[in-house]
Every structure is written in structure tokens, then in C-alpha cells.
Amino acid sequence: MRTWEHYEHTADIGIRGYGDTLEEAFEAVALALFDVMIDVREIEPHECREIEVEAEDLEALLYSFLEELLVLHDVEGLVFGDFEVKIERSRDGYRLRVKACGEPLSEKHKPKEEVKAITYHDMKIKQLEDGNWMVQLVPDI
């Protein structure tokens, strides 16, 4: 179960991802991030990038993960619609490896909002009572 949603937050848009595992919740929130910018259902997996980030805690790991995706979007013009995330504990905290697949942004993608930066605003990572995971934050629009 990998699902995501947007939620209202004053003048911004919050993004929230759910998953049976922490990895699925991270994948879902990444989909929610790109769906703020364009319709992720229109993205085809023509190009893949592998990214690795490390952080001392899960919040910093989430921030670094989404920031790396946003940098690839800004620098290479890529939009992503599929993710395979692996998270493991490391000696200094956590390590995340992801295979992100998508394509260059083109005229076929209808732009929505521009995401300027990832923030810690309203960031939550928690395991729900049913054992599933929820991850959320409000990016800078």
C-alpha cells in the first residue's frame, strides 16, 4: 500500500505519504512532491538515477532525500514518477538508497506549482497504530 495525498496548510501545500513500510512511505511522499509540480501519472520511466544519502536521524534523511530529487529536477530538468527506496541503519544513523525513474520535463507535462525548497515545516515521520507508516512535510512553494 503506497499512497499519498496533499493537505491544505495556510498558503502552502502539505504533502503526505503512506506505506506498509517506512520505505514505501518515503516513496509515496516523493510522488506527492512531484505531483505538486505536475501530474505524476503522466511521467514515463525513461531515465533512472541512483541516489544515496546518509543522515543522523529519519527527519534529516527525509530532507536530504527530497532535496537531492529537487536538485536533479532543477539541474537536469528531470521529473520522477517511480521510486525504489531502501533504508538501513548505519553506524552514524541512517542510509537511504533510491532508484528514481522518470523523464525530462517537457511540453507534455502541464505545470502546476513550483517547489522552491524542501523544509522541515510540519515534518512528521511516524508508525501508525495499524503498523503502517506516515511521512509528511510542507515544502516551500
How would you explain this protein's 3D organization?
- By secondary structure, the protein is α+β, with helices and mostly antiparallel strands.
- The protein has one domain: 3-Layer(bab) Sandwich (Archease, Possible Chaperone, Chain: A, domain 1), CATH 3.55.10.10.
- It contains two helices and seven strands; from the N terminus they run ββαβαββββ.
- It is globular.
- It starts with a strand and ends with a strand.
- The relative contact order is 0.26.
Percentage of β-strand residues:
35-45%
Strand and helix order: EEHEHEEEE
Largest sheet: 4 strands, antiparallel
The poorly predicted ranges are: none
Tell how many strands the DSSP assignment holds.
Answer: 7
**What does the overall shape look like?**
globular
Number of domains: 1
Instruction: Specify the number of helices.
Output: 2
CATH architecture: 3-Layer(bab) Sandwich
Class from helix and strand fractions: alpha+beta
Q: Quick one: CATH superfamily?
A: Archease domain
Ends apart, CA distance between termini? 28 Å
CATH class: Alpha Beta
Gyration radius over CA: 14 Å
User: What number is the mean pLDDT?
Assistant: 94
CATH topology descriptor: Archease, Possible Chaperone, Chain: A, domain 1
Q: Reading side by side through the largest sheet, how are the strands ordered?
A: 1-2-7-6
Please estimate the helix content: 10-25%
